[in-house]
Amino acid sequence: MKKIQRLITRIGLTLLAGVLIGGVLGSGKMTPHASAAAAGNGYVYYNSEDALYRVPTAGGTAQKLSENFSGDYLEATSKYLYFFESDDLSKLQRLSLTENNALISSFAGDKNILFYQIEGDYLYFLDDKGVIYRSPANAADDSQIKQIANNVDTEFPGFFVMNGRIYYNVLKNGTNTWAASKSRDGSGNVQFIAQGAIPSSDYIYSTPTGTSVMVDIKPAETYYSLNSMVLYTLPLNGGNPKAVNAKNPLDANATYSGFWTNNYYIYNKGITVDDDDNYVYSKSKGYAIDKSGKIFQLSQTGIVGLTEMGGNKFAYVDGNGKASISTVANGKVTSTKPIALTNVTNLFKVQNGTAAGQVVLFAASGTFALNADLTLTKLNGVTWDNSAIYESATGIYYFNGEDNECLYKMSADGKTKLKLSDGPVTEIYTISSN
Fold first, then answer.
1. Beta carbons within 8 Å of 120's beta carbon, 6+ residues apart
2. pTM (two decimals)
3. Cβ atoms of 72 and 81 closer than 8 Å
4. Which fold has domain 116-248?
């Protein structure tokens, strides 16, 4: 009989406002999904000696925004900084960025908010009553808040706004959970995708040609890992969903430990969890499923981290701490080259002004940029614990241990460094494009 493995917490490790080095969230609370940060211009928001500051990403004078600041899940617009209070992760707060000596104020009244997202010019949020609201992100007050969806299943609170639609989980007929979408302004009918739940906003993915959604068709099971994950594809702006693997659902643990790419979902077949609910990657194998349902093996060992390199190439780290680059063609791996680095913990792509970006690897011996010829350049001073990488922001941001923990920005190739703060930094909150 096949051993049934325990399932990790459904929300688990989620990307925080574009940050690729995230933190574990409490049950029922989700991080916001930020709009893409600017590649060149914008602001870094950070904590120094308990005060909130921001400084231009291009360098300049830092601005103190608030004394004795304590907040989580920050997102900024051109006029406001939104966040949850650290001691009350249900009340949405905001701080004016245009007024001198502005005070922190509540937004959305006494609503208990489970999740929020800023997309374009609008703020979207879900309350504990199962209602999704929308407001202009720079609204002067609460008066422009508008209800756009209701009957949301708050057991699965993550939603995602893209391509004119909002994707979320709804209680159909008040009892059955369905993955669904509707127009982002609340108009029109609800489009039901499939019975089941989208586990979180991380399981919705968009490309220039369409939208992919991973749906758990047995969402009531929260302890055992079942073969219950079905990939659905939809036209870019909504339309009839297509089940890719309805007859062969993926294992939940395998899927939750996986990654989206433009053409595939990468998952870890046979992955287990230990007594602390941590994944045991070394006992699994990395697989890929494409949008037609074709499956092929990518790695002999489970994949901890992966990024696309262009030209059907993937750089990835396996459960044995080895990094490799594989080329895929016609639904199979045609070549694999090892990267000369051991005890690698993870890797990320850093924006550097090129379409391919710069692959950066974190290892026991340090942090390294991967060059085009597969040689490595050590990024001195950057470690897993002191750095943050943002999906659409150029460079790496880190606390410089050789300079009083001041905030620095390093180019993705390690060739240039820019000092951004004069005081020690204890936390990098977010980067905005405004």
1. 35
2. 0.90
3. no
4. Lipocalin (2.40.128)
